[in-house]
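During the first year of the project, the team set up a workflow for recording each protein of interest as an amino acid sequence followed immediately by a discrete structure-token representation. This format lets reviewers and collaborators read both layers of information side by side without switching files. As required by the reporting guidelines, we include two representative entries from the current panel. The first entry is reproduced here exactly as it appears in our internal archive.
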Amino acid sequence: MPIDDCSVAAKPREQLLCSLFQTTPRYRACASGWKPMAICIGSHAFKDLINTYRMIEQDDFDINTRLHTIVRGEDEAAMVESVGLALVKLPDVLNRLKPDIMIVHGDRFDALALATSAALMNIRILHIEGGEVSGTIDDSIRHAITKLAHYHVCCTRSAEQHLISMCEDHDRILLAGCPSYDKLLSAKNKDYMSIIRMWLGDDVKSKDYIVALQHPVTTDIKHSIKMFELTLDALISFNKRTLVLFPNIDAGSKEMVRVMRKKGIEHHPNFRAVKHVPFDQFIQLVAHAGCMIGNSSCGVREVGAFGTPVINLGTRQIGRETGENVLHVRDADTQDKILQALHLQFGKQYPCSKIYGDGNAVPRILKFLKSIDLQEPLQKKFCFPPVKENISQDIDHILETLSALAVDLGGTNLRVAIVSMKGEIVKKYTQFNPKTYEERINLILQMCVEAAAEAVKLNCRILGVGISTGGRVNPREGIVLHSTKLIQEWNSVDLRTPLSDTLHLPVWVDNDGNCAALAERKFGQGKGLENFVTLITGTGIGGGIIHQHELIHGSSFCAAELGHLVVSLDGPDCSCGSHGCIEAYASGMALQREAKKLHDEDLLLVEGMSVPKDEAVGALHLIQAAKLGNAKAQSILRTAGTALGLGVVNILHTMNPSLVILSGVLASHYIHIVKDVIRQQALSSVQDVDVVVSDLVDPALLGAASMVLDYTTRRIY
């Protein structure tokens, strides 16, 4: 049976160091013409593996050095320590031998140590059996060695294509076949019965026994041990003479050996448990077996040369190319599955497979070795696929502005803007907000697509889309749960999905009051503050609360509905269905309502004022009248400001923020009244809290953009 870890140094016209990571006979011809000097590392030095280094000596290799590089323990840590120990010991040997080429075979962790040492010491590496796919950590090790190697010998056409896909130079890849097939295809006619009797007993016939070889799967040790236990149970039930080889020394092997001993396999009359079989004898045993079972690469690769039935268990060799002789039991989770596979496979004879070789690999490898020019540059080159345009070196790309698409869904207008990382509105688009869902969602998509296209021309890289909308919003799902009466057909609306699907960008959605607070936190007067509150005064009254630097949404996404704080038990009706809310006094809608009443009574207009017949009376007319001395208009504004001020007092008493920011078109008209109310009504402990007017022009758009920009700069939101 193959045993890992041997290196051979030889001196032809150039020196050659061969890493023979399986039995020496497999590569014996590689040393033809050279006087080899062997370095034994790893398992070959173990006494409990019958000192297999002596077999290397029998093959006429002069063992120059024996390195003990395996740390016993058979767990993940021991594997890592073994690699580290090999890395510590190998440099002295390589410095002494000074090889020109290192031949590394396969995918064992010991091979990785050897390849790493050679690469760092500027020794050329030829890797045998790269490009193959199995299904465990061996894949990662094999591909890592491939990236370190300068030359490659592969066994199958698929492996060759994999190497090319991994950007290896095609001129440095040789499709030779597997060297072991040179031995296998000429081995079957030997005197095999004496070998069978020696290992399995005098009463055993050809094709009437089983060879079992199962290793731990290092990425799922617990499952592989359970699978091994089920395999042994199935073999006991199947009741055929079985040669069981001990597992390799990977992590988990110690537990597998315990399972063998727990079931008494070493003393069972139907079993022969051995730690090692010489390669020449092993190939005779598998060639004439009724079946081979386990998860060794030998089963899916070498045994195909004889057409012997194979049962491959689990995922360890799941990616390997196999002949028709292999039956996969990927989910070997019950004894019955394995037993059924034994009944299906045992005693069959399949056509011989030559997927992995035709018996002429060694001559091809020798010819390839002789063709290597040791004078060519050592630096390895990779053959990357062509890239259409390397824009990373374009000055426009380097100077590209990281930006967000911001969307503001107001009661009247729908606005989309390109906003830079610094809060600059690069370009803004405005349309009237349609009345129906279909028209509105189509217009949003159209405006965003146009803005994204324009962003390319403006050299802005759009990182995502942020949406500010009225109503109650679930920001986690990007859904408008309930909207205000100002935006019709806008309940239970998924905004994230259609925009993300159309633009292929991440999308964030939140309430407009929350967005105003986010804008202040990133770009405005709340920047750097731990706790503050924003009140937005517009068509309605909204707000947002920042507590310990984070936005408060509440358990049902209803936090900071500050416009619906009740400040009077018998106040005017509010759009929410209640009465006496701040919004019923101080919103643009409330002021418009009062302005219409005055106008209908001919009490609004004063000298210097006029309202065209085709223009609706609104809040701005009321404010203009108050500025021109209209006492009734002034009284209405004072009442509205007082209601807002009482709301702020309640906020100060409840949240105790360090700052209150009034935002929106009406903020500047209310600020002085609000401060007066605080002086008159608030507790002395909060009267020093500052109340300011926001200096941001478009807080809803900037807040929508900040959701995108904060996330892309890794701020938690």
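The second entry, processed by the same pipeline in the following quarter, appears below.
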Amino acid sequence: MGMSVPKSCFGYPLSIFFIVVNEFCERFSYYGMRALLILYFQRFLGWNDNLGTAIYHTFVALCYLTPILGALIADSWLGKFKTIVSLSIVYTIGQVVIAVSSINDLTDFNHDGTPDSISVHVALSMIGLVLIALGTGGIKPCVSAFGGDQFEEGQEKQRNRFFSIFYLAINAGSLLSTIITPMLRVQVCGIHSKQACYPLAFGVPAALMAVSLIVFVIGSGMYKKVQPQGNIMSKVARCIGFAIKNRIRHRSKKFPKREHWLDWASEKYDEQLISQIKMVTRVMFLYIPLPMFWALFDQQGSRWTLQATTMSGKIGIIEIQPDQMQTVNAILIVIMVPIVDAVVYPLIAKCGLNFTSLKKMTVGMFLASMAFVAAAIVQVEIDKTLPVFPKGNEVQIKVLNIGDSNMTVSFPGTTETYNQMSQPKDFMTFNVDNLSINISSTGSPVTPVTYNFESGHRHTLLVWAPSNYQVVKDGLNQKPEKGRNGIRFVNAFGESFNVTMDGEVYNNVSSHNASEYLFFSSGVKSFTINSPEISQPCGKEFKTPYLGFGSAFTYVITRKSDGCPEAKAFEDISPNTVSMALQIPQYFLLTCGEVVFSVTGLEFSYSQAPSNMKSVLQAGWLLTVAVGNIIVLIVAGAGQFSEQWAEYVLFAALLLVVCVIFAIMARFYTYINPAEVEAQFDKDDKEDYLEKSNPYAKLDSVSQTQM
């Protein structure tokens, strides 16, 4: 095939559009599948939170470790194009396998709506996940490098713009999929029994992956394909090993020093290879501090979402659930990338500042660090509003008088009188070791409360007659999860009843006792009381007031004088008051940091890599993300700070230190143009070759210069 001039469009190679569309579909497919995983593990496979989370994080880490594999295959064996195609096929198969694993009718032979052998589904979904991790990880470093390959010399500006568009496609794909996939999940389907439609929700990403593959193959004729150059990685490893061994062998003073430690390989390896390895090691050295950025960045999904659960999602007329705050990042990226590219950078250039790649990355780290300072400030605001829970060997107690007469209860150091159904004081805190409680009322003897109080927990003391009491352990020693509201019922009737609230059932709430808490999202809920004691004409339907975010209430159900039930609400934990809108500044800072850090990093890794190791450096870049993920797992596992804001400040400080170190390292980095360096070597080789083949040519040129 002759050298065809690449077709172009707006000054970009036409092939780029296929690559961008491919990336968009692939990311949609990946994030769509990932958004479902945790729910699929819990609800379909029936795993608990810890197992689900562990497998999920392992999968994400795998997806960032497999790029090394993909890069090796691409740069030393198949070339980028064939690697992308073959691994995309593996990927599509993986997506199909996981979709099949979620078909409940696959092993549901007795048609009762639950799979008969769950292990088949578990095995299939694990095989699917491994194939997906191989696929998505393997093509990641190749797609971005392959895109960069499409540009000619002198198209640096377009190439930089391409990496921005590429990053935009990634985020547009993830944004759309996080919105659309949950909608698919709530559809119902099934042959014999209808239930949540996981096969459809997993099937759409699988179909998109197939589309992504087809789009990529259609563009085949237009791509500029760089041939892989033998097993480059083993050559690199051998060369580095030889240099180190040789250096150690010649460590005495009598050997002259060499400029660079890799120059010790020059006895055995050619200069071009050595110079290429120098390029790679210089960049890899710069990468050492970078995982710290990702360690902060990856906490959006975990820590920041948890922070949102202690905030109120009512912003004006709209209501946001805590886990929807993550989409703010993707939305802001889609807005910020074009602004930064088309407005901010040109403005900085107009001011005559040379805003180099490494300077941009330093600024990105600084912004991320500031985002965590903002998060810490928000956390301090939240902490002011949080209820105080018992710590160490403290217990907290609250009294509810559900009887007909006044009661006096004495605690260590205080005595309180409770009227019938009075709003109790807040929880009182006592030390578990010297806790003695006595109940009395006029004209009756004192009753001591005998109960083994559990330290670190809240308890409710129900009293209804001088000698009748019941202690209930609340079981809530933190704000309800996910910004939901805890509701429990206390039965002041003579026998047990059932309560149904918003589809959840409180079974057999026994007389003079409290149910467990069940949790509900924000809004107004209605509940029904079913009891043989309630006569027909009575109303059994009740409505709660508007429930916000993160509150807990106890509803005491008593009998009115006409025998009908009445519900009275007591607040246990007040709803969140700090608005989630306060998280927007930290998301904004982090997103700006990401735009100047991440897009630049992709582009820098490409531009500084020798032509035969483009994918390898992209994989090195992705490896910093993987290490960042691992740092989070270690830090989160190692120490829980007593104060969340302190942890944010610690992370911010760490990143600032790393940012300063990186800035110093960047000062000493000299930018190169690998293509020019390689061209220079080719030219020298050519001259050497000519010289060998024609010894007189050299003399000739010398004599001419002497004339």
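For the second entry, the following points were noted during internal review. The CA atoms of residues 145 and 615 lie 6 Å apart. Residues 697-707 have pLDDT under 50 and may be disordered. Both points are flagged for discussion at the upcoming steering committee meeting.
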